[in-house]
Amino acid sequence: MNNNTINLYLPGIWALLRHAGSEILAEMPSLQLLLNRCDSLTENSLESEAHLLSCLGWQAGEEIDVPIAALEQLAENGSSEDATFWFRADPVNLQEDQNYLMMSYPSELNLDLEEAEALADSINQHFAEDGWKIDVVDGKRWYLKLVEHADIQTTAAWRVVGKDVFNLMPVGNNSRQWHSWLMELQMLLFSHPVNQARVAQGLAAVSGLWLWGGGGLPVLSSSSNVFLRGVTPFMQGVARQCGCEIKDLADDMSTVLHDMPLNSEQLMMLEQARTALQSGSLDQGLSVLNELEEKVFQPLVALLKSGKLKHLMLIDTPGFVLDASAGGMKKWWRRGKCLPV
User: Domain extents for the chain?
Assistant: First the structure.
């Protein structure tokens, strides 16, 4: 009996649809069909990454971050020290806007590796006694390594872009100490030669680091019928930590079940919607939605209709989980599921 399932993680898809306007659904008939004929459309408070990790045995909690940084650095640096605590430490430009402090879009920085390493070296020297160690992968992707648990909860950087950061600063038992350190960091960066040179050239300065995705490596379990699909360091790190087989993303989603055993479960993460949101470009967002309709939703709906795919979950959380089945696709009388708001 065929029971092939796909959990499709598409962080940012509902927000991108809201930005584009509800009329965009007229140009996305396959997604509209999923909304109309899905078995359920339910709210879920977990981050998409937390939902994925929970499928592999991780116990999520409301008062802890999803350990995204630890898993990413496992893929990129190969460090599997159990006692180490990691944060993503994204370099950001913060702009004052009347009574607000706004995070600029990441594309406005465009740091090169030499600049990034010079800034990181100064930060490491300044905060050495506090146990900080910044590891730079490239101009955008930095990690903060700590020897002790930070005891704070953070907000993912992509959710903060274009918003007032004061309402999204770290919270938790040790938040006061971290707020103090982050203010100290801003003062250090303000007078840094790299920033002075960038400002002189009319470029945006690095005015802070946004910490998020903190934690150590999680305990994960694997199963012979569970497969991962994705190309990001997070997905690569998850595969390495749990021992699951990871496959490349299919260029043609109609082939996503090829060479897969019966009753397989695929956990797949696509980044296009989240990337479009961070670009701040409506044109890019519309282009991504058109691409997702043609290359993702249309072939997956066809697989559901054919019965080759038994079950599809479309997950963008905190937010909504769309649960669709092959049987549900046949229930033509179903109507009325609305775009999540």
Answer: 5-58+221-329, 68-215
Which residue in the block uniquely carries the two structure tokens 């938790």?
172
Rg (CA), the chain: 21
The C-alpha atoms of residue 317 and residue 170 are separated, in whole angstroms, by: 20
Name the DSSP class of 94. Answer: E
Report the distance separating Cα 124 and Cα 137, nearest Å: 15
- What does pTM read for this prediction? 0.92
Residue 224, judged by CB atoms within 10 A of its CB (0-12, 13-18, 19+), counts as exposed
The DSSP annotation for 249-301 comes to PPSSGGGTTTTPPTT-EEEEE--HHHHHHHHT-HHHHHHHHHHHIIIIIHHHH
Q: Which CATH number is associated with domain 5-58+221-329?
A: 3.40.720.10
State the Cα–Cα distance between residues 294 and 279, nearest whole angstrom: 21
Tens of pLDDT along 181-200? Answer: 999 999 999 999 999 999 99
